[in-house]
Design brief:
alpha+beta; Rossmann fold; 37% strand
Length: 685
């Protein structure tokens, strides 16, 4: 069977397989994950020796265990981090990088990096998130709702602290922490390995939702504790627990600051916490006294709309706390009380801190591009200078810079250390599509956009237009990265002019731009898509504005359905995948940041819901939803379809059995593209 781009794109998990990732850095070595080929979903653990520059496969999971049946907590973790691979997909190392632990098939495994040996430790068979202590002698892991510890040689396996019932657990991240705060773990070792900071999560007050599999009515539905907007969150507290079982609760005002957003404990410093208020207008950075469990306020950030959370901070640089905050209309890197970046720089995240330097990524005048920077007491300097999008991981004097651009495929990963530079090889496939994108700034608001025409397009030939946005907070579609444009170019080669635009609410420009969707996630984002379309048509006369379609997934699905419901004069067909049709059925931390609570702002929720617009549908609409989705649950699409049916409005619904918010299944992912293509061709005919 001849290979096609939809087949390749599905088989390679969107061309991500074979790329090195999940770097862990040490003075003399780098650990990372990578599969053996661009179509192999099974990921191996590798070690790169910095002295010689040689790579060595440390763990080949194919001969160890089947990764098919996973503990429920591990399945949920993979959904939160959007993990589509198998094999070794997470691991943890001790401080020296000599010992590594990882879960595989629900069991605990230990690898000796220098000796090259891998062995299974006979403990419970539902191991989740194992982490070895910095000294390399003890492994902690979650089993069920309990946190357990075991010696690295397999002896003294015991329960350190136990959960009870179906609502209380220890050492796990609650739903909104993993889905919205990017905190994916629930416990942290002390630097000397004698104790742990452990999250206690009580979900008793959180609503229970049931995720059923209609294709298998003989199976019981899965109970999910889902904190929908306005409802109770999990009650999360933090406890210092010694290996002898002694407990001490860490104290802060949890009534005012119920969200535990960040925890860190680095050698030579007290633990750092970041906590956040329910309305997200205030966040505090605290230090912890491990002796008595008290906390001390380091700094408090307030905002009249919301305080953003960032990756990599808070952290220590010498005796100063590093954080990112919005000050004077700019997103600044703060070291202690001082902003160390200029007003025109938008800081994205911190890649690593040491006592001597801070490595971070930032954009300047173009949100589609980002560079890696280094700050030291001597000043600020750029670590990348070419025109693309760059990411980094940094520890001590070692940094991995991951770069992508418009003129080459995939990522290029370069290790920089005092001894020189080493490139980490990629096994990713070469894409069957080579995109040609025009990067644009459109309209009065200079919206970032990309426009793609069919390969070999003859000027003067009118083209139907396909908008392909995400359009919502925390995600950009318009990036100076070739891989981003592979699928849009495939759509263009099917006979469309494809326009991708990032409007208000998307990151990368300035805090006011992101906050401009406060209390209205519908009006500004839809207006920007319309304005981008009309501005692009002024630049490219071959865009046929009498045939305009729009497609998207998640927030993009919401935006697509919104477009045909409210602007049928502009949009003539839509494909809405996993749309958040009614924000009252989405989670607390995300939804309340933008809309407040349904109790306080019922009119805001009504105005941004799609349900009351159902009767106005007059264009073809295809709704797609995974029935196993525990993030944007299928009820969104079903409720919208019900309203459309009650109003007598024809529409199509494609339910995906066994599919979550992701679509990693190869056959499903491939055919989803083809089914959408068929629908849009007929709708625009």
């Amino acid at each position: 069977m001849a290979d096609t781009f939809p087949r390749q794109y599905a088989r390679t998990r969107r061309l991500t397989l074979g790329q090195p990732r999940a770097f862990t850095l040490f003075p003399d070595r780098v650990l990372f994950l990578r599969s053996l080929s661009g179509s192999d979903p099974r990921t191996d653990l590798w070690v790169l020796a910095l002295g010689s520059g040689t790579e060595r496969q440390l763990v080949d999971p194919s001969g160890l265990a089947d990764d098919g049946e996973l503990p429920p907590a591990e399945r949920a973790r993979r959904e939160r981090v959007r993990e589509t691979a198998t094999g070794v997909v997470s691991y943890a190392a001790n401080k020296a990088g000599r010992m590594v632990v990882f879960p595989l098939g629900g069991r605990l495994w230990v690898a000796d990096v220098d000796g090259g040996t891998v062995r299974r430790v006979d403990v419970a068979n539902d191991v989740y998130d194992p982490r070895i202590d910095p000294t390399g002698t003890t492994v902690a892991y979650v089993s069920g709702r309990a946190l357990r510890v075991v010696a690295v040689d397999g002896s003294d396996d015991r329960e350190l602290v136990a959960g009870t019932g179906d609502a209380l657990s220890w050492g796990r991240a609650e739903f909104v922490a993993g889905e919205e705060m990017a905190r994916y773990r629930g416990y942290w070792w002390s630097p000397d390995g004698s104790a742990l900071l452990v999250a206690r999560v009580d979900e008793a007050a959180v609503p229970v939702w049931w995720i059923a599999d209609p294709a298998h009515p003989d199976r019981e539905p899965t109970a999910v504790r889902y904190p929908k907007a306005g409802a109770d969150n999990a009650d999360v507290s933090l406890h210092l627990i010694g290996l002898d079982g002694e407990q001490r609760e860490i104290r802060w005002d949890r009534k005012v600051f119920p969200y535990l957003a960040r925890v860190g404990w680095s050698e030579g410093h007290p633990p750092l916490l970041q906590v956040q208020s329910r309305d997200q207008r205030c966040a505090q950075v605290l230090t912890v006294d491990p002796v008595d469990g008290s906390t001390t306020l380091v700094v408090e950030d307030r905002d009249d709309i919301w305080v953003e959370l960032f990756d990599g901070v808070p952290a220590w640089c010498g005796q100063d706390v590093v954080r990112i905050c919005d000050r004077d209309g700019a997103r600044r890197l703060m070291v202690g009380d001082e902003p160390v970046t200029p007003d025109d720089m938008y800081v994205r995240d911190v890649a690593g801190c040491s006592d001597e330097r801070v490595v971070f990524t930032a954009s300047t005048d173009d949100p589609s591009r980002a560079r890696v920077y280094e700050w030291t007491r001597a000043g600020l300097s750029a670590m990348t200078d070419d025109d693309g999008f760059h990411l980094a991981t940094s520890s001590g004097d070692v940094t991995v810079v991951s770069s992508t651009g418009l003129d080459y495929d995939g990522f290029r990963h370069q290790v920089r250390w005092p001894g020189g530079e080493i490139t980490v090889g990629s096994c990713a496939e070469t894409p069957l599509v080579q995109p040609s994108v025009r990067m644009l700034r459109l309209g009065e608001r200079r919206l970032s956009a990309g426009l793609l025409l069919p390969t070999g397009h003859v000027p003067g030939t009118k083209l139907p237009v396909l908008l392909d946005p995400y359009g919502g907070p925390h995600a950009l579609r318009v990036l100076a990265a070739r891989r981003i444009w592979l699928e849009p170019q495939w759509w263009a080669d099917q006979g469309f002019a494809v326009l991708v635009a990032d409007g208000r609410g998307t990151p990368g420009r300035d805090p006011d731009w992101e906050r401009s969707i406060h209390l209205d996630v519908a009006g500004p984002v839809l207006e920007d898509q319309v304005d981008a379309l009309h501005a692009a048509a002024e630049i490219e006369p071959d865009l046929d504005l009498s045939r305009v379609a729009i497609r998207g997934w998640s927030f993009g699905g919401y935006l697509s359905a919104l477009a045909v419901l409210r602007r049928p004069d502009v949009f003539h067909a839509a494909v809405a995948g996993a749309p958040s049709a009614d924000w009252a059925h989405y989670d607390t931390h995300y939804t309340e940041r933008y809309l407040g609570t349904p109790q306080d702002n019922p009119e805001v929720y009504a105005r941004t819901s799609l349900l009351d617009d159902a009767a106005s549908l007059e264009r073809p609409l295809l709704l797609i939803h995974g029935l196993a989705d525990d993030n944007v649950v299928a009820a969104h699409t079903l409720l919208l379809s019900q309203r459309l049916t009650e109003a007598g409005r024809p529409h199509s619904v494609l339910p995906l059995t066994g599919v979550t918010h992701m679509t990693p299944q190869e056959e499903v992912a491939e055919n989803l593209l083809l089914l959408q293509l068929d629908f849009l061709r007929k709708a625009l005919a």
